[in-house]
Structures are given as structure tokens and as C-alpha cells.
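=== Per-residue structure ===
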Amino acid sequence: PSGFTPLPSNMAIGATWQPQNAYNVGLIAGEELASVGINMFIGPSLDVLEDPSVFTSNQLATQSFGSDPYWVGQMGQQYTAGLHEGSQNRIAVIATHFPGYGSSDRPLNEEIPTLRKSLTELQQIELLPFAAVTQPPLTATHRVDGLLATHIRYQGFESNIRSITNPITFDAEAFARLLNLPIFTSWRQDGGLIVSDSLGTHAVKRYYDEINGTFPYRTLAASALFAGNDLLYLDNFTALGAPPETSIANIKETITWFQSRYENDPAFQQAVDAAVLRILQTKLKLYDGNWELANVHASTFTPSATNDYQTILLTIAQQAATLIAARDTGTNLNPPGPNDTITIFTANQLQTTCTPCQPAPLISPQTLAEQIITRYGPSGSGQIKTDNLFSFTIAQLGTYLNASPEQRQQPNTNPSSLPSDLTPNPGITPTPLPPSLPYQIQETLRQTNYILFALLDADNTNNIALVKQFLAQRPDITRNAKIIIFAYGAPYYLDTTEISQLAAYYSFYSHQEPFIDASLKTLFQEFPPSGSAPVDIPGINYRVFQATQPNPEYPLDLYIVAEDGQLMVPTSEENLQLAPDALLNIQTGLILDRNNNPVPNGTIVQFLLRDQNDNIIKILAEVPTIDGIAYLEFDPNAQQQDGLIRITAQSEPVTESGTINISATGNAAIETPIPRPTITPTPTITPTLLPSPTTTPSPTPTVTSIPLTTPPSVPSEPTLQISLSEGQMLITLLTSLMLITAFTIIFISTNTNISIEHKFNIWLWSIITGLIGYNYIQLALPGTPNLQNWPYLGTLLITLAASLIGPLLYWLFRSK
């Protein structure tokens, strides 16, 4: 694996919201796979992660591009184009997991999931990304060569809620209904290949074991063929509990049985012939019809000196970096300094990259610490002291959390150095025991200012569960230290209460070196995180559906399209004279969502006819957007209206737009919304080292008068600002004020020579100067840094001291 470029996850690409990045990653994968002779790629995943859940995970995690079907389709389309062009069309791209696995509530290594969804509902979400890579008029570059059908069954598939299909890969009737949908028919007729998911997966074995009491491997393969699968994936093809070596025997027996049945069963022969024809057509297409061995083995890989893959990946890592939540944007997000102690806990998940290889951690426990020392330690920028940096695994944190009080104590002597009768001997110096792990972690946490958690996806190592346990059991630490989480996997595992305890919560979606690099640069504020989560995050109530709605800060622009396709923007001073009986072509400007990306295709825009008082007369049309723009063909002469015709547009939640005014004499002018938002371009890093993807030409006309607006710079979604002050500091303030009041009352009540007016003024001045002292230390003004080490005691003392100055100042000013 060291010979290949480590590529980011699909979710990391999705967090950039730039299909160009999907194309670039696909291009790299295509070039490298083709260079070693690989001619089929199982991916990309086109699953819409509709409802991520901590408790019921289908284990897709970062394999998915996101939760929005439109954007998943766009990313999959460009990833496919990159794979094809990078391999010079010598790789067959097989998108997964048809007809959609994102709503599943369990992984296939447990059992086959059952979803309550009708075919109509599937067409609204799950099937849309697959349509994006199969429907005409896509070029061959953007169309996938095949779809991998996964094992899933549906309740209410044909609108009968009591009816449940078999697993879709073995249900000929239900699978045919899917493939005969208009969005797939032409692709299938053109040779689109269906590849089955593994027929030996645990879920399939369990399903048929419960029905038949055995694993019917021969009939199982035949059922998959008759259902419409052309290429059957046989892996671990044996019964539950059977020795692995029986898998090879079962595969051989199944092939022999297929040969025999092919010779004697015309229907079976027809099914085999149809599948083999599609497979051979796919192979021949990859090699331009030349199946000669020399041509098949010929390498098409020519490395280019201009393609700097690492620059591409660093760019994607920076564009994907997402601030999920922050306690506030003030001092809690300051980068660590020389006097800060940092403790890092790293997820201890292992991977095995080859059969003889030993398992290795996805992220080494020392990786973050080593990079911090290299860049920000004494030999780097000098921001961090080496002695102030500690690293542990999250498993070691679990050892500390589950240790007894005795195990967290430091033993003083080594028992082996004492006499056998346990009587201390003055002539023997006891040897100190090395500190226990729980004690080490306990003492480290007592002095730490920053606690970093490097998290990956949920798995059987319980890393995420241990972090949850730490946040629940040690609120004393969470109050006194800044806890920061770097999610190098999916971002949705923590709940609202847990997130509220964090100083900051970042997601990077991938664990490769460029993403660790980006996380540390984010911590030390070398660049602001600009990504937006492509999936729902229940813990901060972030929903992709809401994030991809039109941004209400931007009124809709309206343009009149000339016959040559250019946009005319006549103003009230420069009217456009319409020809009699002419149709008026109108379009909106580019409609942006809350993440400042074009809204998904199909976003509804209403074109409205209004009177002179801006009242709606009627809805002219409800038009879905194409590439973020809506179009309307309008006949002014068809409107039974005297005088001025006024046309506006809206797309919820945006209700404001420009206005096209058409007079009775045929003059047209456009009013722009006032006031307009302040336009500030959002800086982005666009990779230019790889060629841009070839796409179907967009119908968007060229702007000739007023350019389309550029989105203003807004905070990247999703962010959660938690602005409540810590309770301890509030209690400190109230305690100070109560003590000030008590001291003042005691003083003035015992002094009968002072008038009521002066007594009130003394109390008031004491309160005012006490509050000034409190604010002085909270703002960390000169002279207070040393007091920050004792925030509550220091605040109390400064507040009380300042309150004594008040009466002195009052008498000083009074005497003058």
C-alpha cells in the first residue's frame, strides 16, 4: 500500500462541496489503479446518509459523500469521470450500494436490514444519486459501467404496507421493478452491468439459515442470477460456522452445477447468455474492442510532473476542515502557548493492510505530539514546550477511568526490597515503584490546560464510548481545561450535552497525513476552517436539508434573456422595448444556499404576478432550478391586465427579489432589491494542477450587463455558539457582591455620624469599583496573567480589593 497515494474519504470530499475535488481524487485513483492492471473499481458509494445515528449504525460512516441526494449524485458523477479519465477509460466503475443503503439501521455483518419505504419514496431520495450516473444525456465518461446491488429488503415496496420483499438481490420481481424505471432503462439497455454484493456475507447466511436451516449456496447463486445480477461476487461462500476451506469446494460445485443446468435448462441458458454478453461488452469497451493479450497488458499510465498529488490532498484537507461547535469564539479558541500543557488521547484503532502484515494503528499515538513538536516546539515556532506535551491512547484513558482509587495512588516503595518478615531494615533503601498508568494520567490531567481527542469512527474498540464516559464522569476536568475534539471520522457521534462541554469540536473526516496537518494548523489558527458538514449532526441540530435551502440573506436576482442567450439588465433609465407578441424569457441569478453553494437541482422557484401595490395576483409558474438557476418563458400578451405588469420571484425562505416591470407600451425595466447585502467574496483554495472535469454544457447564459453576485462571507455551517458563562465564575461574582454589601452595611450602620445619603453613596461606589475590578481580571488586562492560574480565588480577591477603593474615591471627590 505504500506505493499508492492515501486518498481522502468520500465524506471529506463532500465537506468541501466542490465536485472538482471528487474529480481530482478519482483521477488520482484511476491513474494509479490502471498502472498496476486493475480494471474494475467497486465504488464510489452513492448512498445518501439520510439519518445518521449513534445507536444504529450501518457502518457506512465516511464512505458516504453526505446526506443530500443531489450533492451525492454530483460528487459521484465527477468521481466517476476522474476514474475513467485517469485510467484512460480502462477501469469499469461499479457504484455502490444500489438501491441505497444510507437509511439502513444495521450492518450486513449482522443481518439483512428491512426498510419501510415504497418505490415512490426511494425515487425521491435513495435512487437520485444513481440516476445522476446513469441517466442520459450524460457522456460515457460520467456514466458508471455498473451498479453493485446490496442485500436489503423493503416493507411496503409496492405501497402495500403488509408486504415485505425478499432481499432485493434475490427478488426477481422487485429488482425488475427497479431496473425498469425510466431513469435506468436506457442505461441498462446500453449494457449497464449489475454486480451482486457478496453472496457469502453473514447477513445472507443468517437469513437463509433461519428459512432453510442451511446455506443453499447453489440455488442462492441461481436466484441472484435470475434476479438480474450479471456478475456474482462469491466470498466466504460457506455456511455459518463451517471451516473456511469449504468455501472453495462450494464455489467449484456451484460452477459445475451452473454448467450442467446451462446445457439442460433453456431459461437458465438465456439468463446466463444475457449476463455474459454484458460482461464481455464491458471488457471489450475498456480495451477499445481489442482483447489481444498485448493490448490488455499494455500500460496506459504516464506520470505527469505537473500533477502534485500532495498539493491536491492538502487543498482538500483544508477545504474540508469544519468547525462543528465552539463554546465561544473568544479566549476559548486561542491557540496553545508556551505555558500551556497539552494532553492528547488518540483512538487506538488498528488496520491490517496485507495478509502477512501485522496490524498497525490508523493514527499512531505519537503522531500528533511529534508533529506539534516539529512545527511548534523549540526547533519550530517555539509556541510549545516539549515538556508540556503528553500522549496516551483512548484505551489507556479507559484504564484510568475504570481504575479503583487505590490503583490511582502512587506506591512509595518496592516490596521486593523489604525483609521477608516485612520489618523495615535501616540498611536497605526501598526502590520506588514506577508510577502506575492510572496515576500518570491522573497527575497529567491535573496540570493540563488543553485536552485533545483524536477520534475515528465507532468500532469495537469503544473509543467513542470511553470519551463519552470521560465527559460524563469528570466534569471537574472539563470545567478547568479546554477540551478539543478532532473527528477524523464521521462527526455525528456525540450528543448535545457532550458537545456543550467542549471548547471546540472540529471534523476533518479523514485520518491521512494531510488531514492531521490541517487539524494542527486549525488548532494553531494558521487558517480558518471553511468546510461545512455534508451530513446531519443531531447533536447541534444541524440538518443538511435546511443548510441547502436558499439563503434568506440574498434576494433573488431577475434577468431578461435576449435571443442570443445573453442577459439583459435594463434599468428604469434604460428601458428595453419588447416586440409585439414577443415571448419574454426570464431567469433568476445564481441562487445560493446557506453554505454559499448553488442550491440543489429541483429547488422550487415561484414566479409571481403582482399589482402596483405589490400584492400577489397569481402564481405564474413553479419552476425547479437547474444548476442553481430557474427559467421562465412568459407571454405578456396573455395577461388580462391593464397598465403595468410586475413580475417577482420567491423560493422559500427567500421572499424578496428583483422586479421586472412591463408597461402597457411594451417597455421593460428591472428593479433590484434595496438594500442589497454587502458582498464580500469568500476566499477559497482551488486546485489547478489537474484538468477540470468535462461536464455537460450548462444552459446558463452569459452575463453582459451586471455580473452575478458573489456570496458574502458568512460563518461556515454548521457552528454552534454556546455563549453562557461558566456557573462557577457567576457564583464568584455574586459572592463578591454579597460580601461587599455585607461589609459596607456593617461599616455604615455602626457609624452614626454619616448621613443616609452618604451611606448610600458609599455602598454604591463600593459596588461600582468592585465590578470594575471583576471586569479587569476577566479581560486579562496587564498584571492579571498570574492570577489566571487561580481564576475563582483571584477574581474574588481582586473584586473585594477594588470594592475598598470605592469609599476612598468617594470621600476624596467629596472633600474636593
